Each structure stands twice: as C-alpha cells, then as structure tokens.
Amino acid sequence: MASSLFLRLPQELHVLIGDNLKQDGSLNALAALSRTSRCLRSSYEPTLYQGLVPESDDNDNPACQHALIWGARHNSIPVMAQAKAYGADLDKQVKYAIGRVDWVTWSGPYNPNAPPPIVYAWGSALQLAVHDGHDDAVQWLLDQGAELDDVDNPSVDVCRCCERHGAPTGNRSILHLATCAGHVSTLRALLERGASLDVAEEIDREHALHATLSTELGNSRNNKFEPLAILTALLDHLALGITAESAKSAALNSVNKGGLTLLQMAIEYNHIPVMEQALHALVGAGASLGPLPPTAQGTEGGRRCMTPLLHTLLEDRGFETIHQLLDLGADINGDRPDPVQTQPQWQSPLHFLVRHLDQGAIKPGAPLYRGDLSLLYESEDQGRWHRGDVVDLLRRGASLDIQDAQGRTPLGSAMSYGGGHLSLHRRLGALKMVKVMLKNVVPGQPGSEGGVSEESITKAKEWMGATVVERARGPEHDVSSGA
C-alpha cells in the first residue's frame, strides 16, 4: 500500500526527492529508486545521470561521466550504456580517490593526529576497466569506440606500481595496466583489438616486456598468477609476425629504465624457481645471449663486451644460473670479437675470474683475484666456492689459451703471481690455481678454442718446476694434490 501511495505522488515531489538525494550524496538510493518501476525511472534516472555530483572529487565532470566510471569499475554494462546515452565521453579521464596513503611510506609531513592524505588517480573508463580486469566492460567500451591508447592522455597513478606519496605522477599505458595487474585475458583482448606496443613504450619509457617480466617474477613469489602466462601472451603476440623481425629483436634485447635487459632482469631473480622458465622463454623467442647493448648495465666505460654470462658472474648469481645459460647456448668463452683488438675491454669468463697481475697494483692484504669474486683470500675457505666456478667452467670446455686484446690468457694470468717479488702466500696460491686449472681443463681439439694446448701445458709445468714455493714451504705445505 505504501509503495502504491509513493508511486502516486505528484511528479514535482519525485523531482524534489531526487534532487535532495543527489545533494546528500545518496546516489545508491537514487539509483535504487530509478530501478523500482518504469514510472519512477523516468523521474529519477535523469537526476542520477545529469548535472554535477555534489561533494565529488571531480566537480568538473557531469554525473553521467562519473556513472560511466562507476560502471567500468563494477563491470556494469547497463550503467555504462545509460551514461553514454546521457552524454558521457568514453575517452574522458576522471579524477577519483583510490584510498589513503600509508604513513609508513608517506614522504610528506607526518601528523599522527590527522588522517593520512587521500591519494587520487586519473583515468578513463577503459583504463580503469583494464586495470580492474573487467573483460566484459573492456569489450563493450572497445565496441563503442573507446580509444585504446592516447600518448597525450595516459593513465596517471592508476597502476599500483606507480610512484605516489608525494613523488612525481606515474603515467602508464593501457598495456602496462593489464600486465602489471596480471590480467592475462584482458591483455590478450587488447592485443587482438590492436593495442600498440610502440605507443605503450613511448608512454612507459620502456618496453611492455620489461613490466611484464618484473610482474611475473615478483608475483611468482606469492603464487598469485599462473607462472609466465602474461609473458607468454606478449611473446606469442610478437611471434605472430605482426611486428617486424628487427623490431622484435630490438624489443627482446632492449633495456629498461634501470639499464637492465630482459635476460639481466631474469638473472637478478636467480633465487626464484620461475627464473629458469623465463630464461628458456626469452631465449627461445630470440633474446640474445651475446654481448649486451651499449646502454645496458655493466657496459659503461667503453666495456661493450658484457654478456649475460659475465653479468651472472659479476653479480655473483650462482653457478646454477651459469649452467642454465650455457645449456641455452651461451658461449663459455665470452663471444670473443674478431679481431679482439676492436674491443680492448673484452674478457672471457675465466679472464674475469682470474685477474692478471698487471691489471692493477696489489695492495698489502688485498685478495689475489678480482674483487668480491676473489678465488684465493687470506682465508682458504673464503675462496673455495669461487675456485669451484673456475673448475666448473673448465670442465664445461672453457679455454685456458684464449687471449684478450693484450694477449693475456687465463692460465698466464694465474702464473703472473709466481714472481719472487710477491709474498710467499701469493706464490703458493698461484701454484695451487695453476695445478687446479691443469687438472680440470678439457684437452683442446685441433682447430678449436676449447681446453688448452700441449705447448701451454708444457710451459705451465716448466713454470711450476722453476718455482721455489714448494721447497720454501717445506713438506708440511705440500700442494702436489692440486685440491
């Protein structure tokens, strides 16, 4: 009975009720009334979709624009359709609150007596629907003609990885919103509808593959998504042939804003089980195991001979990663340029591990070999693991005879520490390392760079016979075992 009487109220009273509800911000009640009956819909729906939204974060946009955004965020096609009918612009961005900042991460003034500041974002209906993974809303907006990506109007602070809390705003492409949030089906839909990787790269200042790989490796720790599903979707898209082969190669070997290639990023996550799958997927798609681009991390100072294998050694990422790179086809001798003089800084992995004496003066107490990858420290146990790196490389065919631009070989580098002007400890270490090398090297084959030649073996044995280290140390310091 009450509902019947309410329906019989004069039209003027319904309009007044609708205006009051809107002024009070009771939009849910207004929406409920508009869905009660056809009669009430004609009275309340115009009030809901027309005019401005009182006390809104964005009073520059009409109510229909906010309704469109609401529909996109809640995957409601009927609401979006009505909003469009009342004049909502599908491509217009709206400012909205995404929550309050965490005092722990807030970089502005701290006031424990005040609520944390509100964080705002700007995005279009399509951008927000993509970020939320609402495939139905995304398809409907695209069918209605929503723009996929506009370089001049990227989303701002919508993505969870954007810098907020007082930092500069983060502009992100629509592909980034899908990849970073882990929405595989949404990403595939965008690519099928023509989303451009070039436009995304221009907006994000790095290729979408980088954000994708970072998301995959980061989420694999929490088992949030199917491993590598997002990366596979992008690699499949590149494999379709839509992208030119040169552009595909450039994408797979590009660097991110931190100067890392995709393979370097995967290597940085060497403790993540999915890393091995990522390496296989990237190399299988065409990522290069050879020298890194000149802009990549580790190539500064004219050292344009860094490879993923050398990067693994430099960052001390473990021999398991080295084995995986070698199994995938990495050159164990470091892709020596021909002629090598064109790259004066080039070095093989063994050159990197065993530093020649003339590459820098040794200070008292300094380790015998390179930096943190020292093979022989004052404490024998400290160098044991890195000496194992040399042993493993040799057993897999690394060359002791391969020369750098200065004509130095790994074997010669170890022997350079046998001079009488050096401490007894260093000469003893050099003798041990040469014996370890000769014991574990794979004999070279004619015409190959692998192993070591008979001539080098003879010279090394003559050098060991001439050294006075063993006689000086006495029988209690016998190193004949080479262990």
Automatic annotation (TrEMBL):
Keywords: ANK repeat, Repeat. ANK repeats lie at residues 121-153, 170-202. InterPro entries: Ankyrin_rpt, Ankyrin_rpt-contain_sf, Multifunctional_ANK_Repeat. This is Ankyrin repeat-containing domain protein. It comes from Neurospora tetraspora.
